[in-house]
Specification:
92 residues; mainly alpha; 2 domains; 3 helices; 0% strand; rod-shaped; Short C-terminal domain-containing protein
């Protein structure tokens, strides 16, 4: 009987040690994986849009310039007003 108790006690010690080591390894791996997931899930930096009004496309600018030229040709705008409006359209 003493040999049986000694064997059971030894098995309990080995099993307890194995369980403690296994739990420690699992926690360490879990922390490592959580760190990797956070690094992968980190959002990329967002860059601000340039200040000022939104840019218009070339076709829109051409249409505005044609309308402006028609107004100048019909006498609604003089040459100074035409140049001012034209520069605003081209710089937008």
């Amino acid at each position: 009987m003493p040999g049986l108790l000694r064997g059971v006690a030894r098995t309990a010690v080995v099993a307890g040690t194995a369980t403690a080591v296994s739990n420690r390894v699992s926690r360490r791996q879990g922390n490592r994986w959580a760190g990797q997931q956070q690094a992968q899930a980190a959002p990329e930096p967002q860059y601000a849009e340039p200040a000022g009004p939104p840019r218009t496309d070339t076709n829109t600018k051409l249409a505005q310039l044609r309308e402006l030229a028609q107004l100048r040709d019909s006498g609604v705008l003089d040459s100074a007003e035409f140049e001012l409006q034209k520069s605003q359209i081209l710089n937008s």
